[in-house]
TrEMBL record:
Signal peptide interval: none
Domain RNA polymerase sigma-70 region, first and last residues per copy: 16-82
Transmembrane annotation, as ranges: 160-178
Pfam family, any one: Sigma70_r2
Species whose genome carries this gene: Chitinophaga eiseniae
Protein name, as recorded: RNA polymerase sigma-70 factor
Keywords recorded for this protein, A-Z: Membrane, Sigma factor, Transcription, Transcription regulation, Transmembrane, Transmembrane helix
SUPFAM superfamilies: Sigma2 domain of RNA polymerase sigma factors, Sigma3 and sigma4 domains of RNA polymerase sigma factors
Domain RNA polymerase sigma factor 70 region 4 type: 113-161
Length: 179
């Protein structure tokens, strides 16, 4: 499919769009808190993919590229939004502006720590976590996709969450998943 995409085949692009649009939209919305901006970021990501497909060796690399592009654009949006907001405020609001910037930077750091922790998970556990929580697959679908039992998928999901909770700490884990 990547070869067909690199050759400019519209059907390959459409299939990738259908596969990833929803998960990327959800991810961008979680990062930005703004549905319209999340849609813009997602569409810009696909425009970048269409205009100049990255040279990737497999679908896992493509998935990573898509999510990293959305993440980076979302973080840029947050920085830009913060810059505009801070320029509109007068000096009396400078303390509040710094607190907001700190909150954004904290959120960026949380997301960065989460991705680093995900990368440290064992390969199958990481793949199941990404398919479940970033791409929105159900346990049954993952089991079929990976050729394993649904029980194995559920066990690996639980172990992934336990591993992330222990590597991120309970407070960080709570902030990422339950706010």
């Amino acid at each position: 499919m990547l070869l067909r995409l690199a050759e400019g085949e519209n059907a390959a692009f459409r299939k990738l769009y259908d596969m990833y649009y929803s998960a990327l939209m959800d991810f961008a919305h979680k990062l930005t808190g703004n549905m319209a901006e999340a849609e813009d970021i997602t569409l810009r990501t696909f425009a970048k993919l269409y205009e100049r497909p990255p040279e990737l060796s497999n679908m896992t690399h493509l998935r990573r590229w898509l999510f990293l592009t959305v993440r980076n654009d979302s973080l840029n949006y947050l920085k830009k939004r913060k810059y505009i907001q801070s320029n509109e405020r007068n000096l009396q609001d400078s303390y509040y502006s710094q607190a907001s910037l700190d909150a954004i930077m904290t959120e960026e750091e949380l997301v960065r720590r989460l991705y680093n922790a995900i990368e440290l998970l064992p390969a199958q556990r990481r793949r199941i976590f990404i398919l479940t929580y970033l791409e929105g697959y159900k346990a049954r679908e993952i089991a079929e996709l990976l050729g394993i039992s649904e029980n194995t998928v559920n066990t690996q999901k639980k172990r992934a969450l336990v591993g992330l909770r222990s590597s991120l700490g309970i407070v960080v884990f709570y902030l990422l998943f339950y706010r």
